[in-house]
Design brief:
By secondary structure, this protein is an alpha/beta fold. It has an 8-stranded parallel β-barrel with strand order 4-5-6-9-10-11-12-13, surrounded by 4 helices.
């Protein structure tokens, strides 16, 4: 299976002798020597305003004059701020039945990824891969596995989606579990876990995550990984982290060689370790463990990325999984601002959000604004780390009602990703809010159609739901043809690229919960009336800069162009904008285009008047209302005047969250 030399000994020597210890200082020169020919070496925070390629993603900064905040963001080559919405594809990587790949074959990948783009307008896929798939045995790389997953990545890219490569691990390794165990794991190959004690979580195990706290074998395996403890293989003594870095180097090189320049520009980076768990801190505090164990591993991975030609790609680093746990005294939160020496380049803060409390002891129904603090903690964490933030997992199990209602819970999570406020209802959101990009867990094309023998047990065939440890998180069923709850929760309007800086945005989705109650959580209000509470609408406010490239907003396919109304400072009031084949190149243009094909959603493009702006920033807004054409023209003009005053002059949010 070896197509070119394996770099294990060279890589091991690299880290033992610390030959790259000065890489941040000589980074650009070094990267120019070792990067593959299809990689473009550019200093971070620098944009190519005249570039014809607008797919590459770079870190940048923005300082808001409307709030005491400085945020790191992601930008394209034109300087536009990028915002991402997407999916984890998928939990199938945890399963043996598909060979640790998201899809069984390319036909399924083509059908499903097309539907994802058409239905949800996703522009980011957290593409799960498996360490055990890349590196099935000591010192071996399975290039056939890499060929298969690269082919599936290419399909996602061809649909206009970016790809985050996620080395997905849960409970360290399936090979730690016996055939009759309640649960299983995934991640590390079999050769890493020989000779461990029999796994045992205790006389009662209510959920697979309990193994993280009570299963001695799994906890020991995690500790040995973070301590990089020697173990014996048929090829002699090895260390688990070194084995991981060996295969990471080989995989990144091969992926870089297999993708052309345009495809490679759609790879946003690597998530090397899903939900890192300490396994027992050996007397260290969470702060000490973060500084002495977790981040040294990430810095090693960062050096491998630089060394293998991925200098301009970002490492999506996750904190200790319990950093924001809300489950209570059993798993108390371990904290966020723990890293002493924050790296200067090359990282995105990668966080997860699950409401473990509502999944267990908290029986209070989700409500408007209930997650504002949780997501504000993520924003604050990102500012401390001086990194862009991605919420790469959030979700809720299907079938619940009340406190466990997935439609209500996820509506509240999406709301908190988009906005925040202080005080009690009725709430007026902050004028400046950094929105958080995210990929929901999960989209399972094979939901209820699996064929997984758990822990290789021929008597334990799992076919139902997600087929992994009784999880039931997939939003789709029937091979992606139908949904497990109201699709308006996740088929949402959102800005993809903004010509300058996002000040705020909000989408009023009008979801019904499990009790069939309408979650009409937003309206626009003036002194004598409330407006649009019964409408699906999106309000975007941004600080524009002179640019020949437009602001781009995605509108779902349930928006009817003939029924759309747009209220904007640049274009005034526009009702029923026609769907064009291409931009018209007129002053202050507003153009509605098909997103991917006639079955998908729409891209609403808006240009600033660059000659009028010169080099100065200017404040803009756009309100897009579904079924807004039925509104009285007097009301639309009233909205226009109200938004002009409150947004452009007073710098207040016109929204209320009743």
């Amino acid at each position: 299976m070896t197509k070119h030399p394996v770099h294990f000994e060279r890589l091991k020597s690299l880290f033992r002798k610390q030959r790259l210890s000065k890489l941040p200082i000589i980074g650009c020169l070094f990267a120019a020597c070792v990067c593959s020919s299809n990689a473009t070496v550019l200093p971070h925070d620098v944009t190519c305003m005249n570039s014809s390629e607008v797919n590459d993603i770079f870190p940048g900064s923005k300082v808001s004059k409307y709030a005491n905040a400085q945020d790191k963001v992601l930008r394209d080559n034109t300087g536009r701020e990028m915002y991402f919405r997407g999916w984890n594809i998928s939990g199938n990587t945890k399963l043996v039945e598909n060979g640790f790949k998201p899809y069984r074959n390319l036909k399924d990948a083509e059908v499903d990824l097309t539907r994802i783009r058409q239905e949800t307008g996703a522009n980011l896929i957290r593409f799960c891969v498996a360490w055990e798939g890349v590196n099935p045995d000591v010192d071996q790389i399975d290039y056939k596995y890499l060929d298969d997953v690269i082919a599936q990545m290419k399909i996602a890219i061809s649909k206009g989606m970016y790809v985050l490569i996620d080395y997905h691990e849960d409970l360290y390794s399936r090979y730690l579990f016996n055939q009759n165990s309640w649960h299983t794991g995934n991640g590390a190959p079999a050769y890493l876990v020989q000779g461990y004690p029999k796994e045992y979580a205790g006389p009662i195990c209510t959920n697979w995550s309990q193994h993280l706290l009570t299963n001695g074998a799994i906890r020991l395996a995690f500790r040995n990984f973070w301590n990089n403890v020697d173990f014996i293989t048929k090829n002699g003594a090895k260390q688990p982290q070194d084995c991981f870095l060996f295969q990471l180097d080989a995989a990144l090189r091969y992926i870089g060689e297999s993708l052309n320049a345009n495809e490679m520009s759609h790879i946003v980076g690597v998530d090397p370790f899903n939900e890192p768990v300490d396994g027992g801190m050996d007397g260290l505090s969470p702060k000490e463990w973060t500084n002495q164990k977790l981040w040294p591993f990430y810095l090693k991975c960062r050096k491998v990325m630089d060394y293998s030609g991925w200098y301009n790609k970002l490492l999506y680093a996750e904190p200790l999984v319990f950093w924001n746990s809300n489950i209570g005294f059993v798993c108390p939160a371990t904290g966020s601002k723990l890293l002493d020496d924050v790296p200067e380049r090359g990282f995105v803060l990668n966080v997860h959000m699950y409401d473990a409390a509502r999944r267990s002891w908290n029986f209070k129904n989700p409500y408007s604004s209930c997650y504002f603090k949780n997501y504000d903690d993520m924003r604050d964490f990102g500012r401390y780390m001086k990194m862009p933030v991605l919420v790469s997992e959030f979700g809720m199990a299907n079938g619940g009602i009340g406190a466990k209602d997935p439609a209500a819970m996820l509506s509240a999570m999406y709301q908190a990703m988009e906005t925040t406020a202080s005080g009690k209802a009725p709430i007026k959101p902050d004028f400046y809010v950094q929105p958080l990009s995210g990929t929901q867990w999960q989209w399972d094309y094979y939901y209820n159609h699996h064929n997984e023998y758990q822990n290789f047990n021929p008597k334990k065939l799992i076919t139902a739901t997600d087929a992994w440890n009784e999880e039931d998180f997939s939003v789709v069923k029937d091979y992606g043809q139908n949904y497990n709850y109201n699709k308006y929760v996740f088929c949402r309007a959102y800005p993809r690229r903004v010509q300058g800086d996002i000040i705020s945005f909000y989408y009023n989705t009008l979801v019904t919960d499990a009790w069939n109650k309408l979650l009409d959580w937003a309206e626009i209000r003036d002194a004598d009336s409330s407006m649009l509470r019964d409408k699906q609408f999106m309000l975007l406010v941004w600080s524009g800069k002179s640019s020949e490239y437009p602001t781009e907003i995605f509108l779902p396919n349930y928006f009817n162009p003939s029924e759309i109304s747009v209220v904007s400072d640049l274009q005034g009031v526009v009702t029923s904008p026609p769907v064009e084949e291409k931009p018209l190149n007129t002053e202050n243009e507003l153009t509605l285009l098909h997103d991917s094909d006639n079955q998908g959603g729409y891209r609403l493009l808006s240009w600033n008047d660059s000659e009028q702006l010169g080099n100065n920033e200017s404040l803009h807004y756009m309100l897009v209302v579904n079924n807004g054409a039925e509104l009285d023209p007097t009301l639309l003009n009233k909205l226009h005047n109200l938004l002009n005053r409150q947004v452009l002059t007073e710098h207040f949010s016109p929204l209320f969250l009743p």
